[in-house]
Amino acid sequence: MIVEMRVYYCAPTRLPALLDRFRNTTLDFFKKYDIEQVGFWTTLVGPDNHALTYLLKWDDMAQREQRWNAFQADPEWIAKRAETEKDRPIVVRIENSFLAPTDFSALR
């Protein structure tokens, strides 16, 4: 099992639009492609409070590549994402990391 940590840094004032997109659009596509979320968080205190951090759980990198690439290539997803950004971009930068649990981790 691996966990992918993704951090989306939003343009000023655009975090509500990103949260709305996940709530009303993205999560449906995650279900369609069997992408398992661990959780989502906004930043209360830290260097950037216009950020959304979330974790995805994968069996291995091959599963991640297959499911994520299918999701990203979905024409309906591409159209819906573009619609949410027709006025201006939402996300200015994305960081992602792949994490492997230790032998003493509660989540393994």
Describe the structure.
There is one protein chain. This protein has 108 residues and is α+β, with helices and mostly antiparallel strands. The chain has one domain: Alpha-Beta Plaits (2-Layer Sandwich). The chain is built from 3 helices and 4 strands; from the N terminus they run E-H-E-E-H-H-E. It has helices spanning 15-32, 61-73, 75-84; strands at 2-10, 36-42, 51-58, 91-99. Strands 2-3-1-4 form a 4-stranded antiparallel β-sheet. Strand 2 (36-42) and strand 3 form a beta hairpin.
Q: What is the domain tally?
A: 1
Biggest sheet descriptor: 4 strands, antiparallel
Alpha carbon gyration radius = 15 Å
C-alpha termini separation = 6 Å
Note poorly predicted spans: none
**Taking strands numbered 1, 2, ... along the chain, how are they ordered across the largest sheet?**
2-3-1-4
Total number of strands: 4
Please provide a brief summary of the model.
The chain has 108 residues and is an alpha+beta fold. The chain has helices spanning 15-32, 61-73, 75-84, and strands at residues 2-10, 36-42, 51-58, 91-99. This is NIPSNAP domain-containing protein.
Summarize the topology.
Layout: E1 2-10, H1 15-32, E2 36-42, E3 51-58, H2 61-73, H3 75-84, E4 91-99
Antiparallel strand pairs: 1-3, 1-4, 2-3
Domain NIPSNAP: 3-105
Protein name: NIPSNAP domain-containing protein
InterPro entries: Dimeric_a/b-barrel, NIPSNAP
